[in-house]
Amino acid sequence: MSVVLENLRPRTFGVLLLPALSLIALPASSTEIPTAQKQSDYESMSPQTRAIQDDDNVNPGMFWVLDGEERWGRKDGSSNLSCADCHTSESMRGVAARYPSFEVESQRPIDLQERINICRSRRQNATPFRYESKELLALSAFVAYQSRGLPIQITIDERLNPFFDAGRALFEARQGQLNVSCAQCHDDNWGKRMAGNIIPQTQPTGYPLYRLEWQELGSLQRRLRNCLFGMRAETYPYGAIEYIELELYMAWRANGLKIETPAVRP
Amino acid sequence: MARALINVPRKARRGEIVEIKTLVSHPMETGYRRDNIGNPIPRDIISRFVCMYNGTEVFRADLFPAVAANPFLSFFTVATESGTLEFQWTDDQDNTQTASASIEVE
After folding, report:
1. Which end of chain A has fewer CB atoms within 10 angstroms, the N or the C?
2. Contacts of B5 in chain A (CB under 8 A)
3. Smallest Cβ distance to A63: which of B1, B21, B28?
C-alpha cells in the first residue's frame, strides 16, 4: 500500500506545481487600460443579464431606488428634518459622478455612503446607518440614480493625491495567499476568461448594484471584500480608509464612463 | 419594502396577444440556509401567484424554494376587453401583496 502511494506522490506533485508556476510567470508590472479601450462591465455581460438591467420594470435594483425616494422625504432624527427639506432630488444630479470626494472636516476623502451618514449625524441628528443596511443602500441608490447617464468625473487635487497614490498602490500590490493584485486581472488580462467567466475591467459605474449572486443590492465595499476574499487576502472592516482609497483610484480609472445605477451584474 | 413593478401595455387591439411582466420584491428565503451561528433561517417564500383579468383567472403559478429572490414572471394573454388586470402574490404565512393595472382594448 505504502509503495503504491510513494510511486504516486511525485506525479501528483508535478501536476499541482504547473498551475502555480504559470501564475508566477505573469508580468509583475501592470499597464493601465488606454482610454479608448475603457468600457463598462456591462459590455462583458450576457444578453440575458443586460436585459434585466435595461428595463426598469425588470431591474430589481429599482426596488431600492423607489425605497430610497420614499426615505428621501421622510423626516428623521432629533432635528426632525428629511433630506428633501434641504436638497431637491434634482440637485443630486451629477453628485455620484464626483464621489469619492474630499471632506474638509475629517481631512480625507469619503464615498457617497459616508456623505449620507455624515448628513444624517450632523444635520438630522440621527444615528448613522449601518453599512450594507437597506436604508443606506436605498438612499445611496436613489442619489446615484439621479446621475444615471452622466460621465464619471474625478479630478485628483493636492489634497486627494496621497490617498489616490495609496489606492493605486493597493490596486497594484500582490495580496493574499494567491499572491495576486487587482491589476494583474483587471488591467492586464481583462476580456480573457477565468474559470469560464469573462474577467471584467472592474469599472465602478453602477454602484450600489444588484448582483445576481447576492440576490440583493450591495455596495462597492461589499464587492471589494468579495474580491479580497477570493484572493485569500484579509478583508478590511467596512468603512476602512483602504476601501475609500481603492474606490477613489477606481473611480478616477473609470473617468468618462457613464453612471448606470442601479446596475445589474452576474 | 414589499413592492411590485408591473408592465402591461396601455392600449391593445382586440384579440391581440399581449405580454405582461411582473416583478415583486421578496427575499424568497429557501429554508435550507443557516445563519452565522448555525441556526436554520426559516423558510419564507411566495408560494402562489394569480393574475385575474376582469375577474377571470388568466394565469396562475406555484413557486418553490429554488426561485430567486425578487421573482420576475412574464406571461401572455389575449386582450379581449378593456378593464383591469389584478395580480396577487401569496406567501407561506398567507400574507398577500396585490397590484393592478388597466388596459384599453380598441
Report:
1. N
2. 56-58, 62-63
3. B1
Number of compact structural domains in chain A: 1
From CA A172, how far away is CA A37, in angstroms rounded? 19
pTM: 0.86
Residues of B in CB contact (< 8 Å) with A are: 1, 3, 5-7, 21, 23, 25, 27-28, 68-70, 72
Q: For A212-229, b where at least 16 C-beta lie within 10 A, e where not — what string?
A: eeeebbbbbbbbbbebbe
Indicate whether B66 belongs to any domain: yes
In a domain, B55, yes or no: yes
Query: Domain count of chain B?
Result: 1
Task: Provide the CATH number for the domain around residue B97.
Answer: 2.60.40.10
Q: Measured between alpha carbons, how far is B3 from A122 in angstroms, rounded to an integer?
A: 31
Residue B85 belongs to what domain range?
4-32+42-105
Please give, rounded to a whole number of angstroms, the shortest distance from the CA of B28 to a CA of chain A.
Answer: 10
Give backbone dihedrals phi and psi of A150, rounded to 5 degrees, phi first: -90, 145
For residue A33, what are the domain limits? 1-266
Query: Which chain B residue has the Cα nearest residue A213?
Result: B68
pLDDT tens column, A144-199: 999 999 999 999 999 999 999 999 999 999 999 999 999 999 999 999 999 888 99
Nearest by CB: A215 against B21, B69, B72? B69
In a domain, B50, yes or no: yes
Q: Which of A57, A63, A215 sits opposite B68 (nearest CB)?
A: A215
Distance (Å, whole) CA A58 – CA A61: 9
Structure confidence at residue A15 (pLDDT): 44
Residue B37 lies in a domain: no
Q: How many CB atoms lie within 10 A of CB A31?
A: 9
pLDDT tens for B80-98 read 999 999 999 999 989 999 9
Q: Using one digit for the tens of pLDDT, what is the confidence trace for B47-58?
A: 999 999 999 999
Separation in Å, CA of B6 to nearest CA in chain A: 7
Intervals of chain A under pLDDT 70: 1-30
**Residue A49's pLDDT is what?**
95
Q: What angle do CA A27, A221, A252 make, to 5 degrees?
A: 60
Distance CA B17, CA A229 (A): 49
